[in-house]
Write a sequence for this structure.
């Protein structure tokens, strides 16, 4: 309870007319009760709040006159306890419409009370609006997220038509996709469900102006306002009254039109509802645009994969023939060669081998992309794997004047894996090691590490800067780029090796210091995980 700092009532009862006049000017309803519980004064606002305009409240028993505010008469008993009643909210229907009052009681000296009724209707309405706006925004946010996440165009269209109707209390909605002179209802709900799949003439329709002006159109009663519209038969058939049409535009591309309707006789769509339909249409248009881009990107990617697969396959056949003829020449089956001719044939064979390995790399990449790499588990050992890879890597290293060694423990470390896949990874790492090393050597090391084995390819070459380490496993990535780069290659080797390593349940990591060298480590489980085999089923490679 708050006490007034002075005691205006006791000496002034009854209130002088000047004070009364001032109290009548207040926006709050004021009633003063004497200690006998009778009303000594009530201003006009209090009379309005009690719907007792013009009634002489003075002299009335407070608890009776103010019963609408204080159903419990004890609240107005002139004692300290009564004066401590907390402020309460009371809703009333007054001559000026529904009102909400915050009613409080303050105690004065000598047991008098002041009852105050503050009209808080606008504040309450503002709070209600803010709450409903918040709820609306939240549901809108959820729908926008759903649309943004949806990948399938059909689902986006279904979601749009359902939400366009739901968010604006529509009885039906449809999305029309424009196909030249005509539009087709591709997704419909509620009242407009029978129109699904139907075609509409665009010429002379409201859709034309919606598209031309890129803005929505709202109609109070379609058939009254547009009795001869090309779509009026359909509107009559479904009983559409109020209609809103909004265009689906994203980045200058027209994706269609969304139409929301209410049954004939229902009230027209309000401005906030039209705004919501427009906002929903904008969100949906972006989602459709994204889906379209993704579809195009996917189609382009598929075309690229197919092209790579076909072209590398087509190159492999003639290359095999070239390699065969080179073999015949080198073996002098087609006639004797002098030294110069032998050298030329050797260079041809070297280039053919390089070309073959590049084509094989591209083929493996394309098979990985299309999920066509199949595994074949077999028993092997660390030393056997290192030796078979070493058979390819050693000549590459020694040809560049580099030392080469294989280091593995004497005891046999058996493992079950796809030996061909592991060999391919090691050959790839070993070829890189030889390619990027000018001095020193290349080592293939093997050891057991707990329940796994580690096959490591170490070189003393140019190394890789830390900033480049993060991206070297990405497809088509090379540290040195441009046509003048000092090293050849496709930029696919490490990417493919990394993916093949994962395929056999392994992990490929790298440690490197510029100008000191690099170590690529392949950690493999002792047994090929069942998932690797089960996923791919066959032994085809
Ligand atoms: P590329 O066919 O170009 O060799 P890779 O995918 O095998 O493609 O390697 C990608 C890049 O990683 C190489 O271009 C090179 O810059 C770097 N790189 C790979 N291995 C080594 C290595 N042992 N030493 C230094 N750099 C390497």
């Amino acid at each position: 309870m708050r006490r007034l700092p002075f005691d205006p009532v006791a000496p002034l009862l009854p209130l002088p007319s000047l004070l009364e006049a001032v109290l009548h000017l207040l926006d709050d309803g004021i009633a003063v009760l004497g200690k006998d519980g009778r009303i000594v004064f009530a201003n006009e606002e209090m009379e309005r709040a009690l719907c007792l305009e013009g009634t002489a409240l003075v002299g009335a028993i407070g608890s009776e006159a103010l019963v609408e505010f204080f159903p419990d008469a004890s609240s107005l008993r002139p004692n300290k306890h009564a004066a401590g009643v907390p402020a309460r909210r009371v809703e009333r229907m007054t001559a000026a419409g529904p009102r909400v009052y915050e009613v409080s009681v303050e105690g004065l000296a000598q047991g008098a009370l002041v009852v105050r009724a503050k009209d808080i209707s606008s504040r309450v309405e503002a709070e209600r609006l803010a709450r409903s706006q918040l709820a609306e925004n939240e549901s809108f946010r959820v729908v926008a997220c759903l649309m943004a996440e949806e990948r399938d165009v059909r689902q986006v269209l279904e979601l749009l038509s359902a939400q366009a109707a739901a968010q604006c209390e529509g009885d039906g909605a449809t999305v029309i996709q424009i196909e030249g002179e005509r539009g087709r209802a591709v997704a419909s709900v509620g009242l407009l469900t029978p129109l699904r799949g139907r075609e509409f003439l665009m010429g002379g329709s409201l859709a034309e102006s919606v598209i031309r002006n890129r803005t929505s159109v709202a109609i109070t009663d379609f058939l009254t306002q547009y009795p001869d519209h090309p779509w009026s038969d359909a509107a009559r058939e479904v009983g559409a009254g109020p209609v809103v049409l909004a265009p689906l535009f994203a980045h200058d591309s027209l994706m269609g039109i969304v139409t929301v309707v209410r049954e004939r006789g229902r009230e027209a769509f309000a401005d906030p509802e039209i705004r919501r339909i427009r906002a929903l249409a904008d969100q949906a248009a972006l989602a459709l645009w994204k889906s379209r881009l993704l579809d195009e990107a996917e189609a382009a990617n598929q075309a690229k994969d197919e092209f790579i697969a076909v072209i590398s396959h087509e190159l492999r056949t003639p290359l095999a023939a070239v390699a065969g003829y080179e073999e015949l020449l080198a073996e002098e089956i087609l006639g004797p060669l002098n030294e110069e001719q032998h050298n030329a044939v050797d260079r041809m064979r070297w280039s053919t081998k390089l070309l073959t390995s590049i084509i094989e790399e591209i083929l493996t990449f394309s098979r990985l992309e299309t999920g066509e790499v199949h595994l074949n588990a077999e028993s092997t050992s660390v030393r056997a794997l290192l030796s078979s890879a070493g058979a390819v890597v050693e000549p590459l290293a020694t040809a560049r004047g580099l030392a080469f060694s294989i280091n593995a423990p004497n005891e046999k470390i058996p493992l079950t894996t796809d030996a061909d896949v592991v060999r391919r990874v090691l050959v790839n790492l070993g070829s890189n090691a030889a390619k990027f090393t000018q001095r020193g050597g290349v080592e293939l090391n093997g050891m057991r590490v707990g329940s796994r084995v580690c096959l490591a390819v170490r070189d003393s070459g140019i190394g890789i800067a830390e900033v480049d380490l993060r991206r070297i496993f990405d497809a088509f990535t090379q540290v040195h780029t441009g046509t003048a780069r000092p090293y050849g290659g496709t930029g696919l080797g490490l990417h493919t090796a990394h993916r093949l390593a994962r395929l056999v349940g392994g992990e490929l990591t790298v440690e490197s210091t510029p100008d000191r060298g690099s170590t690529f480590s392949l950690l493999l489980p002792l047994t090929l995980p069942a998932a690797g085999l089960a996923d791919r089923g066959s032994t085809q490679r």
About this structure: The longest strand covers residues 97-107. The CA atoms of residues 266 and 370 lie 55 Å apart.
